[in-house]
Amino acid sequence: METRLPIEELVAKVLSELERLKYADNTLCGFRAFYRRVITFAYEKDKLYFSEELGRDFLKEKYNCTVNYYMEAMPKGLKDPIRRIRVLGDYQLHGVIIRRIVKKPGYVKPPQFEKELTDYEKECKNNEYSKRGLRTRIQRLFFFIDYLDCRSVQNSNDITSEMISDYVKTIYAHHEKSIASILTTLRVYLRFLYFNEYTNEDLSLKVPKQSKYYYPPVPSVWNKEDVMRMLDSIDRGNPTGKRDYAILLLVAKLGIRVGDIKSLELSNLNWQSKTIEIRQDKTKNIVTYPILKDIGWALIDYLKNARPISHAPFVFIRMNAPYEAFGKDANLHNIITKYTRLSGITVPDGKRQGMHSLRHTLASTLLEQGTPLPVISEILGHFNSKSTSVYLHTGMEGLRRCAIDPDEVSRDV
């Protein structure tokens, strides 16, 4: 649906749309100044219309930018110029401004889609999607809804296969894993609309499928020495250190997910049977973990000598007032980053060594010790062994180099 407009008219429409979308005044000033330069450049090249080629030539000549910004990562200092050029291309192609950031808090649903969006959220909650999964799913969906709103679609039944195709074109620059997630979200929502009679046609069948095979990346793992150095760097004479030490042990030795650690309640600790019983947020399965000796002493030390007095039912809470649970978006990455730096461990470029990597390390260790994949799946809380089979890609020699003995991950408090 590309519409050829003279470049000055195209810029005027884009700026008008940015104002309608309530972009900040400073942002609008930046767009105006930038587009004046683009218009001047176009006239110097005897070009009346904007094109992707003209945009690339402008970036190359004025910013020495030669990357294919649809296929490669954008250079750090060139994100704004590239974004502004892409806005022109998007508007010329689709008649809307896309790829804009949707603010997480306080998102206002377009009134013509509010009822079905609210009903969809209720269905997701009834299906017991995790809070994090639901939040991510809805966030992806808002981009599509905004796209429809900008194209003046007033009813879900007015959505066409051409609109879906046009929208899919806007996401092809994403990583293939992100594309797969976006397409899945779109497909599920459109199926919901059809089954609930918001649309007369099952448009989910019009959403394209990826033909690429998915090869999961090889997980990042720690070696024994680095785990010991990281744990030894924790000041266990400090209340915050006592808490962080207990958290890291639960991840490293039991493979508990960060979300489950955040939601762990005092009532989940059964000291008589020396077990921790939780309902996993992701899988909804009831899982029982043993309170190993070192974990038990670390928890006791934290609960008796460090945990602030609070009515919160959660085991781990903030160490500064208000003494409440961690925020819903907290991933506790700052904890492991803090002690990685204190211990002087250098993380190579491209390697992740966050909380999840400690789960990877536990899985690789158990695999090296001959533990069957179904057992490892149960320990890590995977839906099935397929998720766990990724650890086979590290190879036996690699496992020998990175494996740690779970009994040596930490020392008794």
From TrEMBL:
Domain Core-binding (CB): residue ranges: 111-194
Transferase keyword on record: no
Any single Pfam family the record assigns to this protein: Phage_integrase
Keyword rRNA processing tagged: no
This protein's UniProt keywords: DNA recombination, DNA-binding
Residue ranges of every copy of the Tyr recombinase domain listed in the record: 217-404
PANTHER family according to UniProt: INTEGRASE_RECOMBINASE PROTEIN MJ0367-RELATED, PHAGE INTEGRASE-RELATED
Membership in a protein family: Belongs to the 'phage' integrase family.
Stated name of the protein: Site-specific integrase
